[in-house]
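Page 42, continued from yesterday. The earlier attempt failed because a stray header line got pasted into the input along with the sequence. Redoing it now with the clean sequence only.
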Amino acid sequence: MNISRFSVAVVALALLTVVTGCTASRGYPIFDREQTAEDELSAVFDKLELDEFAAATSRFSATHDGVDYYLIKRAGEAAGAECVAIADPEWPLIGCGDFAVVSGQGVGATQIVPAPAQDDEEWTAISDNVRVRADRQRLRRRSTGHAR
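This time it went through. Structure tokens are written below.
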């Protein structure tokens, strides 16, 4: 049997693509590492029902304006979908899906994106997968010095 080096290389490349495609994080490399104690969701999430999330997948992503941001994956029927968990002490939030925007009172808008997150005129990247935008009330509060 005469097999060319080119054929072997093509097959090896195809196999590598299939293998890494099954295990790759689709733009969320934070999930490629093991969970550490820092990655465990903070106690503020005890206020929420978290049955639909895989706790072992939570990863600390960033702190911005005193609020911690985590990435976590869904469990159950939507298993594997990436989500951003915002540890606002008053209003903890979780939103899922590429480019999903989650808005909360006090934290403004947050967007989960595949890496690498990029700054633009509307958004500021705070980690490889999370971007934030201040809401109008928060901007007004900062500029006038008055809280509502």
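Notes: The first strand starts at residue 53 and ends at 64.
Reminder to self: strip header lines before submitting.
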